[in-house]
Design a protein that fits this description.
With about 130 residues, the protein is α+β, with helices and mostly antiparallel strands. The chain has two domains: about 70 residues; about 45 residues. It has two helices and five strands; from the N terminus they run βββββαα. It has a five-stranded antiparallel beta sheet with strand order 3-2-1-4-5, with no helix packed on it. The longest helix is centred in the last third of the chain and has 22 residues.
Length: about 130
């Protein structure tokens, strides 16, 4: 369950040799009363006393407190789509070259042309349709 609270205590609790190598154990106590274990690959805990943070609390015999990943990719969706269109255009050009429809010196031109057609959307007639 995802929660938000202030970290009130972080205590090192030894090490553990797991499937991913040496893991460092920490006992984390939150202001709202949640107490659980956090494992880290480094000797420094990701939770800091006094920090207000989002976390995932997994209750049970050995409760766990895990940080929530709020990572946002830097590239926008349109950048990703442009990269995909370019790769598709290059694939089309390479296939045409492999099947003898174009010469090697035309690969870049055809790839760019296909990229431009793909940018226009479904109304563009592609060579394989």
């Amino acid at each position: 369950m995802q929660k938000n609270s202030r970290v009130t205590r972080v205590t090192g609790n030894g090490t553990w040799d797991g499937n991913y190598g040496l893991m460092y154990k920490f006992e984390i106590e939150m202001e709202n009363g949640d107490i659980g274990e956090n494992l880290s690959k480094t000797p420094e805990c990701r939770f800091k006393e006094g920090q207000v943070t989002d976390y995932e609390f997994i209750d049970g015999q050995f409760p766990k407190i895990k940080p929530v990943n709020n990572f946002q990719p830097k590239s926008s969706s349109s950048d990703v789509q442009d990269n995909i269109r370019f790769a598709q255009g290059l694939n089309i050009a390479n296939l045409q070259f492999c099947h003898g429809k174009i010469t090697e010196d035309k690969i870049d031109d055809v790839a760019f042309e296909m990229y431009e057609k793909l940018k226009k959307g479904p109304q563009a007639k592609l060579p394989f349709s």
